[in-house]
Amino acid sequence: EDLRKQFGALSAVRGVSFGLARGEVLGFLGPNGAGKTTTMRMIGGYLEPDAGHALIDGEDVTESRLAAQAKLGYLPEGA
């Protein structure tokens, strides 16, 4: 919900919001520097957003990281 992340003067992610139903698959496509990895790191609980919330099954990832990660499959590039 309205995820935002800033690195100094660089606004890496600005207001990203989306939802998925159980079992749906999502892929991010875009040029280098578009915020794909930053967004996934916030959703996975590996990076805290500056604003907004990453929710998985209604649980805020920053508050219950391990419970949320148990419900998320994440395969980064080069893995």
Explain what you see.
The chain has 79 residues and is α+β, with helices and mostly antiparallel strands. It has a domain at 3-15 and 28-69. The protein has helices spanning 36-43, 65-69, and strands at residues 3-7, 10-16, 55-56, 59-60. The strands form 2 sheets. The chain has a two-stranded antiparallel sheet with strand order 1-2. The radius of gyration is 12 Å and the shape is globular. The relative contact order is 0.21. The model has no long low-confidence stretch (mean pLDDT 90).
Give the termini separation.
27 Å
The major sheet is characterized as: 2 strands, antiparallel
The class by helix and strand makeup works out as alpha+beta
Please report which band the strand proportion falls in: under 5%, 5-15%, 15-25%, 25-35%, 35-45% or over 45%.
Answer: 15-25%
**SSE order:** EEHEEH
Rg over C-alpha atoms, rounded to the nearest angstrom? 12 Å
Shape: globular
Uncertain stretches of 5 or more adjacent residues: none
- Total number of helices: 2
Q: Which features does this protein show?
A:
79 residues; alpha+beta; two-stranded antiparallel ribbon; 4 strands
Short description:
The protein is of the alpha+beta class and 79 residues long.
